[in-house]
Amino acid sequence: MSEQMQLPTTTEVLIVGAGPVGLTLAASLVAEGVTVVLIDKQAEGANTSRAAVVHARTLEVLNGLKVSEELVSRGVIVSRFTVRDRDRALMSIDFSDLPTAYPYTVMVPQNVTEEVLLDRLHELGGSVHRPYEVVDVAQDADGATVTMASGETVRAAYVVGADGMHSAVREHTGIGFTGDTYAQSFVLADVHMDWPLSEKEVMLYFAPAGLVVVAPLPGGRYRIVATSDEAPEHPDRDHVQALLDARGPKERPAHVRDVVWSSRFRVHHRLADHYRAGRLFLAGDAAHVHSPAGGQGMNTGIQDAVALAARLIAVVRDGADQTALDDYEAERRPVAAEVVAFTHRMTRAATLGHAPLRKARNAVLRTVGRIPAVRRTMAMNLSELAADPQRNPGK
Ligand SMILES: Cc1cc2nc3c(=O)[nH]c(=O)nc-3n(C[C@H](O)[C@H](O)[C@H](O)COP(=O)(O)OP(=O)(O)OC[C@H]3O[C@@H](n4cnc5c(N)ncnc54)[C@H](O)[C@@H]3O)c2cc1C
User: Fold this and answer.
1) Relative orientation angle of helices 297-312 and 326-350, to the nearest 10 degrees
2) Cis, peptide link before residue 131, omega less than 30° from 0
3) Residue bearing the CA closest to ligand 1, atom 42
4) Could you give the CA distance from residue 336 to residue 224 in angstroms, rounded to a whole number?
């Protein structure tokens, strides 16, 4: 359903894509009095759970929008992440003493996160224009003209591509999206199950056949993420049960009762060569995609949005020099590069095939896992508190 029929013909900032990144950016700009047009090609927002983790740093940056408490109240608070090999815990990472007002991770489905952000955007007086698909972007010295499939155009001082992995804005800028695609497919399933272990912990199981992650969701559900080569497009109960039987706890096995939602997808690890081309910017999946191990994709994107909003507010509203906008790429691209590398290492370590290598990996993890400083570093990385230069000046 179109939220607002009349598409403005001019605006200060045009945002393409009303996923979590576009919604965060729009709300952040509208809250500070910047004129925004937010468009999306879909007739309505997606209602599936997809990215289900909101990390501490994301809650910190969303605090300015006054949505963090709502997200926390709608999710499951998790204060521990463990790496396991069947029944043996190799490493336990505790979030509870992190130096933040949010010393935990919140498990909340992406559609709920988007709903909370959309509600806030509405409260602030903003809206999403649907369905409008961008087919052309042309920029000149003073701004950019964006053309929709309907033939309508919007003239904007700045355009942000928050339009996901296959970003049309990125295509029009000609910015490269360097990286590769993982050989395996990933399975994602939200299930009801009898789970013999903690309901307040995220568990990553390393197994020769591939990784499997088990994480609690609101409403007594669990999120299962696994690498799988033979998964059907929508994995069923038996498929998920077989994955858990082969890779999860053995002594006290899980029993999957039903699958609420499931999907199989290919995962890429790619990073845009630049985040800015003149008056065009990229944020979120349009700029970086990576393995879902660690659940960092949406988090990094939301943090991009808040960082970019601050620069756009400074230039558009406060009249700062345009060069202030260069800081956005300088600040956020290295963060994404680190996330791509970190999740790539985790994914490769989790899926080691050779028994001697796996044995060595487990031994190393058990040994280093006893060192408090190592566990602390892992907690800071996973929560994304470590990488953000805004939080760690001089990094
Ligand atoms: C099945 C699935 C499972 C996932 N699981 C996880 C997970 O477990 N953990 C995790 O961290 N991440 C996961 N992700 C990734 C996560 O969903 C993304 O990181 C997140 O959605 C990125 O947000 P975004 O706003 O950048 O882009 P998106 O959410 O992709 O939003 C982009 C928006 O742009 C719109 N759009 C695209 N092209 C155009 C155009 N030409 N004109 C107008 N509008 C356009 C789209 O309709 C869409 O609404 C998953 C993704 C999928 C698909």
Assistant:
1) 170
2) yes
3) 133
4) 24
Residue type, 167: S
pLDDT below 70 — which residues of the chain?
1-5, 393-395
Phi, psi of 347 (to 5 degrees): -65, -40
pLDDT tens by residue, 342-364: 888 877 777 777 778 878 888 88
Atom of ligand 1 nearest to the CA of 22: 25
Q: Shortest CA distance to 212 belongs to which of 200, 224, 196?
A: 224
* Alpha helices in 319-388, H assignment, sequence order: 326-350, 355-368, 372-382
**How far is residue 287's CA from residue 273's CA, in Å, rounded to a whole number?**
8
User: pTM of the entire structure?
Assistant: 0.94
Question: What's the rounded Cα separation, in Å, for the pair 213 and 227?
Answer: 10
Residue tagged 């396991």 (tokens) = 84
The answer to whether the CB of 49 falls within 8 A of the CB of 61 is no
Average pLDDT over the chain, rounded to an integer = 92
285 lines ligand 1 (CB under 6 A): yes
The answer to whether the CB of 22 is under 6 A from ligand 1 is yes
In tens, the pLDDT along 19-28 reads 999 999 999 9
Atom of ligand 1 nearest to the CA of 298: 19
Q: What is the pLDDT of residues 149-200, one digit of tens each?
A: 999 999 999 999 999 999 999 999 999 999 988 877 889 999 999 999 999 9
Q: How far apart are the first and last CA of the chain?
A: 45
Q: Give the count of beta carbons closer than 10 Å to the beta carbon of residue 141.
A: 6
Q: Is 45 in the pocket of ligand 1 (CB under 6 A)?
A: no
CA of residue 350 to ligand 1 center, whole Å:
25
Q: Is the Cβ atom of 210 under 6 angstroms away from ligand 1?
A: no
Helix axis angle for 20-31 and 110-123, nearest 10°, is: 20
For the record, the structure tokens of 39 come out as: 């468009």
- Residue 50 has φ and ψ, to the nearest 5°, of 30, -120
CA distance 377 to 299: 18
Cα of 331 vs centre of ligand 1, distance in Å, is: 22
Angle (CA) 308 311 316, round 5°: 115
Residue 271 structure tokens: 């990073």
- CA-based radius of gyration for the chain: 21
Task: Return d(Cα 196, Cα 181) in angstroms, integer.
Answer: 35
Would you say 30 and 18 are in contact if contact means Cβ atoms under 8 Å apart? no
